[in-house]
Amino acid sequence: MLVGSFFKNINPKYKSHFFSGLSFNSLNVKKNNIFFSIKGTKINGNQFIKNAIKKGAKTIVSNLNFKGLKNKVLYIKTNNPRKLLSEVASKVYKNKPKNLIAVTGTNGKSSIADFYYQILDLNKKKVASIGTLGIKTYLKNLEIKNTTLDPISLNDHLQKIKKLNIDNVILEASSHGLKQNRLNGLNFKTGIFTNLSHDHLDYHKSFKDYLKSKLLLFQNLLKKNSNVITDINIPQYKTIKNIAKKKHQKIFTIGSKKSYLELTKHEYIDDKQFFKIKYKNKVYDITVNLIGKIQIKNVLMAMIAAEKSNIKFEKIIKSIHKIKPINGRIEKIGYLKNSSKVILDYAHTPEALSNCLQNLEQQYKNRKIAIVFGCGGDRDKSKRSKMGKIANKFCDKIYLTDDNPRFENPKKIRLSIKKSINKTKLYEIANREKAISNAIQNLNSGEILLVAGKGHEKNQNYGSFIRNFSDKKIILKYIKRKNKYLSKNWKVNIIKEEIKNGRIIIDPYSPRDVQPASVDVHLSNKILVFNNSSAPYVDLRFEIPDLTSEIIIPDDKPFILHPGEFVLGSTLEKISIPNDIVSRIEGKSSLGRIGLMIHSTAGFIDPGWRGNLTLELANVSRLPITLYFGMRIGQISFARLTTEVDNPYGSSKISSRYQNQTSPLASKTHIDFDSHIKRKWNQLKTMMLTFLIEL
After folding, report:
1. What is the DSSP letter of 46?
2. Segment 219-228, tens digit of pLDDT
3. What integer pLDDT is reported at residue 692 of this predicted model?
4. Is 337 helix (H, G, I), strand (E, B) or coil?
5. Which CATH number belongs to the domain containing residue 575 in this structure?
């Protein structure tokens, strides 16, 4: 190769100077290579020019004043060797994918990149991703050291990806990579900006410089008519919008009103999420198997990127429900038999940790949260106390441990964190495996454990010593042990544990009411009696307002239930049941022995139920029976499901007519009766038509 084909403004007499390849590390220099002398934060490449020449470098690019030919070595002067390296590398490795997408921001880059990859893959489009999780193609995955590769490696990999006939590539653009010009020379069709929060200030020194580095993607690397994707609700939106306008770029937003993809509704369904989006005046219903509302934003950005990659929106919509959680990004690990959960996340910044914990708190309401975390060494020290405060705010138990201490004293790192943590919550365990083990062992029913900081990483960095260590493998190891313990330890009173942890709510509650496998409930003072003379019959299609009358039982006098009479009563207790437990209420056997039949109107009490329970009370004996306010009337039992239900009682997808009732309620079967019958008839007609067609 001749330098004249790759370098601008070079002296014409040197244009025919030959070179064989590129290098910026003197140790990797080969014969006839161009050596780019780059000044880093700790090392100046000018120190290694002589070594590079000894190893065979024929051309030297540096910021030194000397230029021209000396001893058959060509010296090229430039003020920015990093930038020139990227531009030359882009030309040397000229065959690259056509559709390059760069995603930048503090949090969410890996998730967006992986979601984009999955969407295209599900739509049978060849695609690759490059970033924190490595290089991913349909053939293989390759681990890499940095989020954004050096220019030579990056362009080399892009050329190899092109050889696989892959034209769609999404890559993570770190602030380091952008500031160091590693992406210069690449032709990006789309740029994505996620958000900006406290991170990497050990390198950037100021938040302003950090933002400036991120914006280089849109100011310098995106050309006219390229696409910009961002969140309309972030503080940096106006700045990005102004850049896009000035550079004649097309901006597409996610968020609330006036967004390209408008999020109109959102709700949690255990480990899943349901949401509605508005796109070009049409509303779509979507369910994803992902934890954390923040992931919805990441999905929406990936959807726009996929659409701008020529995937029809209707096809994107059809594939979204198949998207899988990402390795180490709010990822649920394993299954625990006591319905507790272990979540793994890469959160290593204050905002990422805060967002993650808030998302868990919102998705798993009324559940206690524990955390295992630490902070990395040789990084921004100011974020440590902030992360301690965040953990203290959201978590009931905090297991403080080592992250990647690197060359710092891990004890000092932990000290700066724990100053912000309440001592009653704190368990300081330096050994990370031991910390995870203790946290899982101490998980009670329904509790949530977040293991944060390292996510997908497979080693732990102690500076001069790096050991193989995967949070995920350790978590799975101790989940297995926990489940073995739960299976063997029959002494654990699950009912009391669930009530203590607030997953099952019985209000008022007394431990004296707990039976071997049930809890006694009591009769409220409200009774519904039937006015048999108010109507000739009960027509299920219509409401009969005067069919029942409410009677209040006095504190000191009984209600008399005569032979053959049927009334509706109610539990004194308000009952709340989580989404992975189903319940049943039956009458006390002592009352059944005298002819008082007691049954819950529903039989089963569905997961997600909240409210007092309506009871059927029938006297089948030949003698009147007295009913007293507060008497023991029945006993409620519980059965744990293997997973949480898709649509718990009270969710928008089912008709939950009695949720949050406080007294016995008359039948509401007339509601939607005709439409239900019509639906069934239509289903039957469809079945018959299909049968006839097949005949």
Report:
1. G
2. 999 999 999 9
3. 60
4. coil
5. 2.70.40.10
CA angle 502/453/106 to nearest 5° reads 110
Going edge to edge, which strands form the sheet with 127-131? 141-142, 134-136, 127-131, 168-172, 99-104, 188-193, 222-231, 250-255, 261-269, 272-279, 282-288
The CATH number of the domain holding residue 33 is 3.40.1390.10
- Please identify, among 300, 320, 340, the residue that sits at the C-terminal boundary of a domain: 320
Among 96, 222, 240, residue whose Cα is nearest residue 157: 96
Beta bridge partners of 333: 342
How far is residue 152 CA from its own chain's centroid? 34
Please report the beta strands in 409-516, taking only residues with DSSP state E, as ranges in sequence order: 426-428, 448-452, 459-462, 465-468, 505-507
Range of the domain at 39: 3-87
Which of 293, 443, 292, 271 has its CA nearest to residue 369?
A: 443
Domain of 222, CATH number, reads 3.40.1190.10
Amino acid letter at 162? K
pLDDT of residue 493: 64
Confidence grade of residue 503 (pLDDT, cut at 50, 70, 90): confident
The amino acid that residue 218 corresponds to is: F
Q: Is residue 451 part of a domain?
A: yes
- Quick one: which of 99, 96, 101, 130 has its CA closest to 252? 101
Q: Which of 87, 118, 137 is the last residue of a domain?
A: 87
CA gap 672, 678 in Å, rounded:
10
State the CB neighbour count (10 A cutoff) for residue 643. 11
